[in-house]
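The material for today's practical consists of a large collection of protein records. There is nothing in a record beyond a sequence line and a structure line. Backbone structure tokens are a discrete shorthand for how the chain folds in space. Nothing more is needed to start thinking about how sequence determines fold. As an example, a complete record with its sequence and its structure tokens follows.
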Amino acid sequence: MEKISRFLVNKKDSIKKVIGIIDKGGIGSAFIVDKNKKLLGVVADGDIRRAILNGIDIKEKIEKIMNIRPVVIKDIKEIKNLDLKNKMVSGCIRIPVINNSGIIKDIVPVLSDGKISKKEERAINTVLVIGGAGYLGSILCRNLLDEGYSVKILDNFMKGDSGLVKGYKLIRGDIRNISDIVEAIKGVDAVIHLAGIVGDPACAADVENTLEVNYLSTKSIIEICKYFQINRFIFASTCSVYGKNDRKKLTENSPLNPVSLYAQTKIKCEESILDSIDNNFSPVILRMATLYGYSPNMRYDLAVNSMAQKAFKENKIEVFGGEQWRPWLHLEDAAKAYIICLKSPLEKIKGEIFNVLSENKKLIDVGKIIKSVFKKSELIVNKNIFDERNYNVSFDKIKNKLKYKPKKKLADGVKEMKNNLQRQNGKKS
């Protein structure tokens, strides 16, 4: 009984307590038993979230919504005689094996064809990616599909929909609109929040709008996730929160010194997220390095991408200042970090902040790398325009705790962009 005891609950336990047990159990279901471990009913996380949508209070007892006529067997051989096609949730159902007294002996994951599932069990099947049509989102969502997840996207598509492929459930909406968030969150098991106004110039252009989109909407998303008992929440923050910082290696515990509204809103979001943690809300914050690399929904306002594009079009690479340190990360490695967090046990990520990067380079060295790829280009160092942000960041924490291993370096990403620019323009630089 020790193996399955973590999936067993009492009929008098609250719905809130049970959804927490389900999330920690990792199979998406709980089995309601009496004091003698006799099976009384079964409940899945989807059952609970549908009940919440229908207005039930999570303080109610689980017996109020449990399935009192679940599929059960007394011998594994009985599986081949079951008709499970109308009982499937995401292709797999957990069937309790009971003895003659109704006591659970085992729990078997079974597919609709009657075969026992040999895949690694996981409770997360449907992931909502807020901002999933964007620069990073369009790569992440593709990778989620490849990993076998169902993907929902909430996006306003202001940057277009060129990053989309078949297989997503799309919701066009505004993250400032509570109705849009609620509609998107229905039926999901985890939320990845990428959306927002990104970058210092864009944020500074409209301060009020930036506060609404980047900060206040995030607070709404947090509260709606908590209401619907969405335990796993992954938030995209930024290493820009370190701002102007001359320390040699910045860890997640280093002091923050933001120099932009963009970074300030991210810090406020981080604080709200950490303040919202409870037994059933286990967020993780990823402080992302400056991204680069080709995306179906391309951005050429990011440092490496911008310099590569200018090298291609004008044979010039312009670096502002040059001695400032920055952390860098390829898009594919960025997407990998979110998927690792989805797969990690909640106790490893709950309430954690992780720096996510592959390497630190000075801006002047980035310019030299780009020149090594675009050999005909002239490297120009502009000392008149200087960005005071300066941060050299450690990613030892995510590397050691979650075994995160980025694969791509700056030169790899610049070569990829050169190849794509050549294909798009039908010429060679």
Q: What stands out?
A: The mean pLDDT is 91. The radius of gyration is 24 Å.
